[in-house]
């Protein structure tokens, strides 16, 4: 469990925080972005004093930001010790992926009934972008376009609560999804699996869309073996 030197982390001034947000909200947004991007890796320490110095604030807004991150399940707050970015075991992550698959499957099933032509066209454009990126080394961009593809399906479900809950869980396992995306074979499989989701959405096949999305997100077969291989020391 290591902490990143303050000097090695981007300054507060460069953070992509929303204009007008409070200091604690800006700090929260910055740290959340760094956790999800892997800049702050699982097990990294978040020391209040170091963060206050980095963001040039008192410890009060830092403490508030850390409380919000803990509520989102991204960090663990410990008594009289620095907070830690949550490190999840392979077993726990597999369980979370199973739940994620059900949530995203429900989003896709509802989207098959409610998606409009403009959203379908945009999904197809995202799929074309992913196809162009799949054979390149631009993994970060592939991951981002893939995120947008899924996000649009959440939106097309027209169920704001479902989208909110799905997004919250996705954020908790986002770094691990990105790690799986590093494998070229997984990117190729993503294109095939997305195509099945798209066909079901285009034809209004609710059950087909749900099943295709569950299969896409869940860790089964070779996907599961590949995932476990990333965490040889996990319990």
From TrEMBL:
Q: Which Pfam families match?
A: FCD, GntR
Checking InterPro entries in the record gives:
GntR_C, TF_FadR/GntR_C, Tscrpt_reg_HTH_GntR, WH-like_DNA-bd_sf, WH_DNA-bd_sf
Q: Which GO terms describe its molecular function?
A: DNA binding; DNA-binding transcription factor activity
Tell me where in this chain the HTH gntR-type domain is found.
21-88
Q: Does the keyword Ligase apply?
A: no
Query: Highest taxon of the source?
Result: Bacteria
Keywords, in A-Z order: DNA-binding, Transcription, Transcription regulation
* Gene3D superfamilies linked to this entry: GntR ligand-binding domain-like (1.20.120.530), Winged helix-like DNA-binding domain superfamily/Winged helix DNA-binding domain (1.10.10.10)
Put simply, this protein is called Transcriptional regulator
